[in-house]
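Handout, section 4.2: multi-component inputs.
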Amino acid sequence: MQLKPTGVEVLPSGLTLLAIPQPQAAVVTADLWVRSGARTEPLAYQGVSHFLEHLIFKGTDQLPPGKFDYLVEARGGVTNAATSMDFTHYYITVAREDLADCLPLLADLVCNPAVPATEFDAERLVVLEEIRRSNDNPDRQIYQTLARTLYGDHPYARPVLGEPENLMAMTADWVRSFHRARYQPERMNLVLAGGLPTETLLAIGRETLGAFTGSETVELPETPRLNPVTTRVEHTLARLQQNRLLIAWMGPDITHLADSIALEFISTLLTTGRTSTLVRLLREEKGWVRNINSYFSVQHDPGLFVIGAQVPGIHLADTEQVIREEVQRLCEEPIPVDQLERARRLLLSEFVFGTETPSQTCALYGYYSTVGQLGQVQEYRDLLVSLDEPQIQQVARQYLGRNPSVLTFLAP
Amino acid sequence: MNQPTRTNLTGGIRLIVLPTAGEIVALRAFWLGGASLETPQTQGLAHLVGAVLPKGCAGLTSQDIAGKVEAVGASLGTDTHPDYFLLGLSCLKPDFAGLLALVAQLLREPDFPEIEVELERKNTLLAIRSQQERPFTVAYNHLRPQLYGADHPYSFLDLGSAETVAALTRENLQTFHRESCVPERLVLCISGDLEPDTVLALVEQYFGDWRAVPCPLPVLTAVQGQQSRQFLPQDTQQSTLLLGYPTVGIHHPDHPVLKLISTYLGSGLSSRLFVELREKQGLAYEVSALTPTSLGPSHFITYIGTSPQNLAIAEDGLRSEALRLAHTPLTPDELRVAQNKLLGQYALGKQSSAQVARLWGIYEVLGLGLDYDQQYAPRVKAITTEEVQRVASQYFTPGPTVTIVGPSEPALLNLTKPHLS
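Output:
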């Protein structure tokens, strides 16, 4: 099965352009991805990637603070950005006839930020509010505790938003030098999707970013090797109204794409839909859990396979036992064909529904081309069709065959 | 997208077919009533109907139904709104005809099995408790009764309360469905790469002989609103502040003006509240405005999450930015930008098949008609600065109803400059 034709061009600077035409769309999304995120931050400057993302919107020598937002939104477009462990990205979605005018603004913003000293303190207050807001969200706290517990010394253990002490120690100069070192063309991908032909998308990208050249290339720090952790912890969390049970295993990194997709199959078999094994057993038949879900996060370094449930206290132990038995069953007994094909159909649909609009398409292609390799989206789609039962069971044994970590969060 | 077609079936069902490209078909079935058919004692009824309706029909069990849907990678779900009830299906084109038959069975012959009623009741009671984990939801649930009074359906809790949900019976669910989900109140909106005639034939086949008698619809009275304030203690790091103003429903000529004002104040990184309170003062990460679309009198909300010590200055900021629009006309440029933003975001809200099916379905079920989409842009472009000022003055001058969720009772408007470290 072939995906929509994709145009690829690597500029002399090393910056990669990716174009995915979606002729029926009236808009175009331009999404500039940078292979730099919280994973490769120096320990003392935790949170700098995310803070830089905020400060980038404070403009350049050509664009005073707020001007970029105004110019894009005044045309009816939208813009935003996001920072994660492995990447940072900045995007606009505009009417297709506005792309040629708006993309140079985005490129200037991301490539040449002024980080004005006058804006620095007020924006730091905004990030401190963002941290407080995150601390008020029990699910965020639960996720951070999970990451801290499973990742130990690895940067994935830390919050992307950083810690207030680190933020208070940062200066505008230091943030500027961080930008110079990290935002190099060979670490950047511009993904364009929407209602223009491939050649037009590529031409606008080339015209806009052809002149952007990097300065010195700084090697990014290596992250420590991860060893699977098996632990059992219990926390009581203020303001929590429902206990949460999390069962987690360390999975593969993004270079093992087939293993990652196999884990997506397993997650779908276990918790997607009312007929999935664990939803049927634990929510529908026994009524022990209010909800149960699972996911595998595909990341640059090994990701986590997590099963999470909201469970009243009296059912915690039994719920854990059923989950572990069913995971064990996947490792040992044949997977029924109808269940496997159901999972395949759900994953294929998810892929179709998840690439319907230009912004969704940019998110998918941007993620895999930035964190993984160009071409992985096609490979991903092919694997959804081709993975078979023995391969999936082999992956279940390899990653889920050992004892998991179990985290329980109790309402006070 | 080509033009939508609308057909009225003999029983009263309105069928809208929206030709879109691609492999996806989205169906959204709407019927009028929704949570506004509840009473104060049956709050949460519509939600529970939605939770149980897909779990048994025409002798099929919950697992049978989910099995048919999931085997072809489709999704099926329900949603409740104060004005309407919604059942949605998204699937790939080859699977649509088969699933439409299932949708017809669900809408016409739901069984509401006792065992599923009890299971979903139990889960709803847990969900009600979980809402306490979200300060915005807590604040919003307390704001609406102050705005509307406790008897107005728009003040009701989406999920109901522990007491009302415990008291709901299977018979309540059956009656609610029988009297509101009837052909003359039903809109079927279907988007996809489909021939309208083929769709019509299928709909005739599955729905054509359906006849039923509806219950009366509620009268949604206008709202006075109280300039009251309430504080709900929660041990959070931020305080969540909501200011609410009573407004009007979607049929009122001021509705697009209020949407424009909401866009001007709260939409995007260049919006007035974002720039003034976040970018200039660093008071918040999240600050915005919203105004729900509803048949009866709606409301306008501005809100912010901020440190408790900045609450007074934040409240002053939110209040004065709304009032400023009553005193100071927008510049022509501000008006033009707000118009472009509103229409740009409107266009972005019509990208996927599901979005399109939902939007046209809402227009039809709320009685705006298929032309509303085409009339919307000219109406927004015709808004003048005088109109903005008049509307702001009318709805914002009486002052807001205030709800605060946070760690400590704040001092009333004790204005101090925020501390810039």
